[in-house]
Design a protein that fits this description.
The chain is mostly helical. The chain has one domain: Ferritin. Helices cover about 70% and strands about 0% of the residues. It is elongated, with a radius of gyration of 27 Å. The relative contact order is 0.19.
């Protein structure tokens, strides 16, 4: 008698566990939306890379006739465009392109950097920092180019801004080589 009761309790328990695990197996995995999903990975990497490039450029000497500062400011606008693109992606599937970036870039003052008395070693180290920032921005450029989505035109704007910042860096390196 006891054995049959025990077997029947075990049977009910096994059936319950079996149905519960069957229910878990059929529960769909939730899809992650927003900045953490794989689709946004390249854009998120480019945002981080732009921030890293800014930090590197800020550590360079002020000897680039304003081009370093202008590259920093343009890269900040690129980060903002990336942020707007990620927000746009959360809210829309397709839509019109954002406003022109030319007005925002035109608002950047031409700041003059007055070089100090730096020796050749300091200038060389500074130039290497600026070159390293250019390499980081080039990786951001590649990621923005490879990103699969449109992001409401913000990705394209960010790409244009990164290209402009790279142009400023090229001018900086052409102007920042003398102590």
């Amino acid at each position: 008698m006891r054995l049959s009761n025990t077997l029947s309790v075990m049977g009910v328990f096994a059936a319950t566990v079996g149905f519960a695990s069957l229910g878990l197996a059929q529960t769909p995995t939730p899809v992650r939306h927003g900045p953490g999903n794989g689709e946004n990975k390249l854009v998120l990497q480019s945002r981080r890379q732009c921030g890293n490039a800014i930090r590197i450029m800020q550590a360079a000497l002020p000897i680039y006739h304003g081009h370093r500062v202008r590259a920093i400011e343009i890269t900040k606008i690129a980060i903002d465009e990336i942020r707007l693109g990620l927000l746009y992606d959360k809210r829309h599937e397709n839509g019109a392109a954002p406003q022109s970036i030319e007005k925002r870039v035109a608002g950047i003052r031409n700041l003059s950097e007055t070089g100090g008395n730096y020796d050749k070693k300091q200038v060389k180290q500074s130039n290497n920092k600026v070159r390293r920032a250019a390499a980081v921005l080039t990786r951001a450029q590649t990621n923005l180019t490879s990103a699969p989505k449109y992001y409401g035109g913000h990705r394209v704007n960010a790409l244009k801004l990164v290209n402009m910042a790279l142009g400023e860096i090229n001018l900086a390196l052409g102007n920042g080589t003398t102590p």
